[in-house]
UniProtKB/TrEMBL annotation:
The nitrogen atoms of the two glycine residues in the GGXR motif define the oxyanion hole, and stabilize the oxyanion that forms during the nucleophilic attack by the catalytic serine during substrate cleavage. PROSITE patterns: PNPLA (PS51635). This is Patatin. The lineage of its organism: Eukaryota, Viridiplantae, Streptophyta, Embryophyta, Tracheophyta. It comes from Juglans regia. The keyword Plastid does not apply.
Length: 431
């Protein structure tokens, strides 16, 4: 027994050294992509043999265990300085990339995303692109949604004398004509649209999942759109009249809803059973440009400070999300944002040049958060990032066609008379 005890330290040292060398090389090669051989591998036969076995084992395991599927999230900011036009233009370009890369000329944004979150003008875009039309397809293509926002901009937004907040000027008729009697249950994928509820002094999140799972949480889409846009209180009620809220602008509560969308997915195992962390997500977050507010405006205008706070909050969300993604930041999370305001505002003709201004913003290089390195200017332009992200989404679409397990299991409303408890499960493994 004593001999065993005295011999074991040397044996442990040899094993520990060999184990360290093996995992050191594997870490360098497989985690960081280094191709250089370990300096001690050629002089240590046991190490060389162990490495050979490890490589064979690694190749065998990856051959039979392909990369896991990812939940695809689209997040759209509030109006910014472009009244949602930058995000709408981004969506039109993204849909064009998806069509060309998939070979399907009729592909829609809703075909390639599992979750959409939108605030303010972003909420309107989410509703237009993800509400089911009479033919069962989304009501609008991305290009149609862009034209809708430009054409109806003055019906939806109007500046107050301060020029800071926008007020809804009788948009109810427009939303009623557009969405009719459609409700949250009529959306095609998981939809999240925020507002601020003055009755409870807390944010309120309109959610398709809540509408299907619980009484009192299904709202008409026209009311949802009015709630996320208005700068004045709007009293609305759920379809069954069980829930009433005094809604105000969703941008006050959540101008950048990306974090809310990610949280919704990570904590919703019923609909996203295989999603365990940020490595299982593909997220694109669309901004709407930042305002050009000088130091004089910041110090002299309290309302200017409110605007700065709102835009600053969006940047904070972007930075926090970027840091949370860590090593997956560049592959799994993309932020599209312009760093300057809209020059066309200064010279007039803003409406005429709106699309051109947004297109020009897509050619900009954006400042992004870099892990442990603060914020830096990235090499890719916004449009290049959109095209690369479209490629990743297409890869995910193809991966699901051969997957046995369903990445997303969304509840669908029953065709019978609607109640929030009358739901069925629909497995979405290829859409």
């Amino acid at each position: 027994m004593a001999a065993l005890v005295s011999a074991s330290p040397m044996l442990d040292l040899d094993v520990d050294k060999l184990t360290y060398e093996i995992f050191s090389l594997l870490e360098n090669k497989f985690l960081f992509g280094y191709e250089n051989h370990h300096p001690n591998s050629n002089s240590n036969p046991k190490l060389a043999h162990s490495l050979s076995l490890s490589r064979d084992s690694f190749k065998s395991s990856t051959k039979h265990n392909p990369p896991a599927s990812k939940v695809r999230i689209l997040s759209i900011d509030g109006r910014g300085s472009t009244d949602g036009i930058l995000a709408a233009t981004s969506l039109a370009r993204l849909e064009s990339f998806l069509r060309s890369k998939s070979g399907n000329p009729d592909a829609r944004i809703a075909d390639f995303f599992d979750v959409v979150a939108g605030s303010g003008a972003g909420g309107i875009l989410a509703a237009l692109l993800f509400t089911r039309g009479r033919d069962g397809a989304p009501m609008f293509t991305a290009d149609q949604a862009l034209r809708f926002l430009i054409r109806n901009r003055h019906k939806i937004f109007r500046s107050t004398p301060s020029g800071i907040f926008r007020r809804i000027i009788r948009p109810e008729k427009l939303f009623r004509k557009t969405f009719g009697e459609s409700t949250l249950k009529d959306t095609l994928k998981s939809v999240l649209i925020p507002c601020y509820d003055l009755a409870t002094n807390a944010p309120f999140l309109f959610s398709r999942a809540d509408a299907l799972e619980m009484d009192g949480y299904d709202f008409k889409m026209r009311d949802v759109c009015a709630s996320t846009l208005t700068a004045r209180p709007v009293n609305i009620a759920s379809v069954d009249r069980r829930t009433r809220i005094a809604a105000m602008n969703g941008e006050i509560a959540m101008n950048n809803p990306t974090a809310a969308a990610i949280t919704h997915v990570l904590h919703n195992k019923l609909e996203f059973p295989l999603c365990n962390g940020v490595e299982d997500l593909l997220v694109v977050s669309l901004g709407n440009a930042q305002s050009e507010l000088g130091i004089g405006n910041i110090t002299s205008s309290p309302i200017g400070l409110v605007k700065i706070a709102g835009e600053g909050a969006s940047d904070v969300v972007d930075q926090a999300v970027s840091m949370a993604f860590g090593q997956w930041r560049t592959s799994n999370y993309v932020r599209i944002q312009a760093n300057i305001g809209t020059p066309a505002r200064k010279h007039g003709g803003f409406d005429c040049n709106l699309s051109a201004v947004a297109e020009n913003m897509l050619t900009q290089k954006n400042v992004e958060s870099v892990l442990f390195q603060g914020r830096k200017m990235v090499e890719s332009t916004n449009i290049e990032k959109l095209e690369l992200f479209a490629g990743e989404v297409i890869k995910e679409q193809e991966r699901r066609k051969t997957s046995i397990l369903a990445t997303v299991v969304l509840k669908q409303a029953s065709p019978s008379p609607r109640t929030s408890s009358a739901t069925t499960l629909s497995i979405l493994s290829s859409s």
